[in-house]
Amino acid sequence: LFLIVLSYVFIVAAILQIPSAEGRHKTFSTCVSHLTVVIVHYGFASIIYLKPKGPHSMDSNTLMATTYIVFTPFLSPIIFSLRNKELKNAIKKSFQRKFSPLSS
Q1: What is the domain partition of the chain in residue ranges?
Q2: What is the pTM (predicted TM-score) of this model?
């Protein structure tokens, strides 16, 4: 865990040395997407492996394992694809059509 955190500290330090604001913004955008996936992955893994031993419901263990095994790989492409402007615009249009009142 220490090495992962240390590597992100070095990444942020390198990003802050980029001279252009646009370059920093694009780089942070990429890193935030990646960091989100990493936090979700390690968060669920930590819950599974660090929970105390004892009488637990099998349903709880199954739910956590399913979340860890299925949710993270499913979420990863969604998070990374949200960086695409065309996809963002398509999602916005879809929500606007669905939730805006119909004009007669």
Answers
A1: 1-51, 58-103
A2: 0.58
